[in-house]
Structures are given as structure tokens and as C-alpha cells.
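Here is an idea for our session: we take a single protein and study its fold together. Start from the sequence, derive the C-alpha cells from it, and show both lines together. Once you have written the record down, we can walk along the chain together:
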Amino acid sequence: MSDDVLSVIPTDPQWQPEQAAADRAASIVEDLAPGLPGGVDVEIDVTWHDTLTVVDCGQNLQKIGCPHCGASIDTEWWGDLLEAHCDDGFATLAVVVPCCGTATSLDALDYDWPCGFARFEIAIWNPERAWFSDEELTAIGDALGHPVRQVRAHI
């Protein structure tokens, strides 16, 4: 069986909220993604990561583009990178892209479906909705005390 996960992460990958702010934001998320009427409630995980952690789109990833030369970056390179950091996370997002050899940041790459990096995440498992609207993201960010973005994974 496959799952869909809609994650909300801060726009600053290093930022982490206080517990009360995380609780407020998680409550809003729970109201916005309650599951199907008469069905099973969705599972919501609120996680503080010790290190920068990838929040990727799983099987939704179509391609990755270089922000410097515009070339496509091999998704195998990306997969190898994730595998190398799966246990310890990322100490830094600095990377040299294989296409043109330019130094950049992993969060600056052009992901076709969104991917991100975070030390805090609210993950909604099988949310029964595709995305949060801009207004909903603003409300979640206001409750959290920091702007947020979203990543949808199919795993």
C-alpha cells in the first residue's frame, strides 16, 4: 500500500518553533485535514529534527534543474545524496552540482514537485486533500510564528 504525506515546513530550514506555537499550528492543520467524513482520522506527526532533514516528494519527483546552468540534474545523483545522509541528516545544504560544477545550496535547486529541508515538520499522512491554499498556509505560519511552505510526497 502506498501513502501520501502532506508536510508543512518553515521557509527557513534551520528554524524551529516553541512547543506552544507548534501545538497551535498542528491544531489548525488538524482542522484543515480532518480526513473523510465517517472515515478514519488522518495521522499528524509533529517532529523537531536534530539536524537538517530532507522533506522530499518521494515518487512525485519528476526532475531536478540546476538554478545556474538550467541543465537537468540526474535523479540518481539526488537519490545517492539522500541515501548518504539518511541516518545523520545534513550538516550543511552546500553542494557542488554535477552538471556545471557550480557551488550552490540544495534548497536552491529547481525541484519538479517541491522538496525542502527542515529541522521542524508537521506531516499529515493521507490527508484526503492535495494542497493547502495560500491563505491556509498563511494561517498555519501565523500560528507557528514563521512563514511555511508545503511538500507533498507519494511513498
User: Anything to note?
Assistant: The beta strands are 4-10, 43-55, 63-65, 72-73, 94-96, 103-105, 110-112, 116-125, 148-154. The helical segments are 19-32, 75-84, 134-144.
